[in-house]
Design goal:
mainly alpha; Fumarate Reductase Cytochrome B subunit; 3-stranded antiparallel beta sheet; two-stranded antiparallel ribbon; binds protoporphyrin IX containing FE
Length: 223
């Protein structure tokens, strides 16, 4: 039903929402079990062997979930809003957001839905493109360093690369652990910014219910 230039739209499928929240839960548990076995932080939530086993099981489950999420992201067509060609547009919009914020004004979301054609004209706030690629890079780093800790000889190149970044640490595995924990802390900061931005643009509800009222960009008599 259209109301005040807006229409209620199905924004996210059940599967997309389930995968998103499964990833959030898994990352949370990976952080808890990871910090529980950390050599740098002494958060003794579990015995070391229980924490390590839990972390490994969750690590493999999480890799399966993100692989399926990426597959679904592409086959469902969601990817088209996040493609590489939109990164420049996303950075420009981010600069616009910063300037608007400094000027104390409100950022207007370009999200628009064509109620007649029943499809989005623009589905996302452009900054989401950079955020999505940010997640992708962080996930790849966590997967590669995690696998290098489990299979050091197979992923020797990752261990050597981490050692080249942190040469002051004697053992290669110690350097990999440091990069693994550093990226995981960075992921926490990234998740907080992501959650805050989703909330500011009023998107959190639709990640639970799947529906959202979207702007049609048209005066009511033309809808
Ligand atoms: C979002 C994903 C992940 C997060 C947030 C995470 C977090 C952590 C943290 C905080 C540590 C402790 C590092 C230290 O201070 O020593 C750790 C250790 C470790 N992680 Fe992960 N991790 C993730 C994914 C993975 C994956 C996918 C694997 C491999 C399948 C993995 C394998 C390991 C291993 C083997 C250790 C060392 C455990 C030990 O020997 O004590 N992690 N992780
Ligand atoms: C480890 C934590 C998280 C990860 C890895 C994660 C990952 C993602 C990814 C990859 C997307 C799709 C790309 C995008 O639209 O930006 C997404 C969308 C979204 N996330 Fe998260 N997320 C996390 C935590 C959260 C939290 C805590 C919230 C809310 C409180 C949240 C709310 C949302 C919303 C609302 C969307 C959809 C935005 C839209 O409708 O366009 N996420 N998330």
């Amino acid at each position: 039903m259209t109301k005040n230039n807006t229409v209620e739209v199905k924004r996210h499928s059940v599967l997309y929402r389930l995968l998103h929240w499964a990833i959030v839960l898994e990352v949370l548990l990976l952080l808890l079990s990871g910090f529980g076995v950390s050599e740098y932080l002494h958060l003794s939530l579990f015995t070391r062997s229980a924490g390590r086993s839990l972390h490994l099981v969750l690590g493999f489950a999480w890799m399966g979930t993100i692989t399926f999420f990426l597959y679904y992201f592409i086959v469902s067509g969601e990817y088209k809003w996040f493609g590489v060609s939109r990164i420049g547009y996303s950075i420009d919009f981010f600069m616009h957001e910063v300037k608007t914020f400094v000027a104390g004004e409100k950022v207007h979301s370009p999200v628009k839905y064509d109620a007649q054609k029943k499809r989005y004209v623009e589905k996302i706030v452009p900054t989401e493109v950079v955020a999505w690629w940010g997640w992708f890079v962080l996930w790849i780093m966590m997967v590669l360093t995690g696998l290098a800790l489990v299979f050091p000889s197979t992923f020797d190149i990752v261990n050597r690369f981490c050692h080249a970044i942190v040469p002051s640490l004697g053992a290669q595995a110690a350097a990999t652990r440091l990069v693994h924990i550093f990226v995981s802390v960075f992921m926490v900061i990234f998740a907080i910014i992501h959650a805050y931005a989703s909330w500011i643009f009023g998107m959190v509800g639709s990640m639970f219910s799947g529906v959202k009222r979207e702007n049609t960009g048209l005066p009511e008599e033309q809808q």
